[in-house]
Write a structure and sequence with these properties.
The chain has 127 residues and is an alpha+beta fold. It is built from three helices and five strands, in the order βββββααα.
Length: 127
């Protein structure tokens, strides 16, 4: 992807009844490049929905830091959309890391070992 100036938001944004808006966001600007983006849709009444979800975007800043912008979005009146920013390491993007799925999208992943693949099943069997 192209390097350049990136502008993102942090904070919260809510559209209330009658279209009133409470905007508590601030712009953040830095030099860097987008490495990957993924969206995970939420669930409503047991079904996947496009009215809620989380979009994560991974950036590498000009000085080499890995930054993740998280947009926890809601498309329903009165529900807030929250924008957060995190500095992460490659470990956070690897297997078992907080942002593992985004890390795979960006090429930081690797195939699971057999033990890693079986671990969640073993824990479920013990419960």
């Amino acid at each position: 992807m192209d390097k350049g100036t990136i502008t993102i938001l942090v904070g919260t944004y809510v559209v209330g009844s009658g279209g009133i808006v409470q905007d508590n966001t601030r712009e953040v600007q830095f030099e860097g490049e987008e490495l990957a983006r993924r969206t995970e849709y939420g669930y409503h009444k047991g079904n996947i929905t496009d009215t809620r979800g989380v979009t994560e975007t991974l950036y590498r800043t000009e000085d080499g830091r890995l930054i993740i912008h998280v947009e926890d979005w809601r498309r329903r009146q009165g529900e807030p959309t929250t924008y957060s920013l995190f500095e992460v390491t490659e470990k956070d993007l690897g297997i078992g890391g907080r942002f593992e799925a985004l890390g795979r999208e960006a090429g930081f992943g690797r195939p699971l070992t057999i033990d890693e693949a079986l671990a969640p099943q073993e824990q479920a069997c013990e419960a």
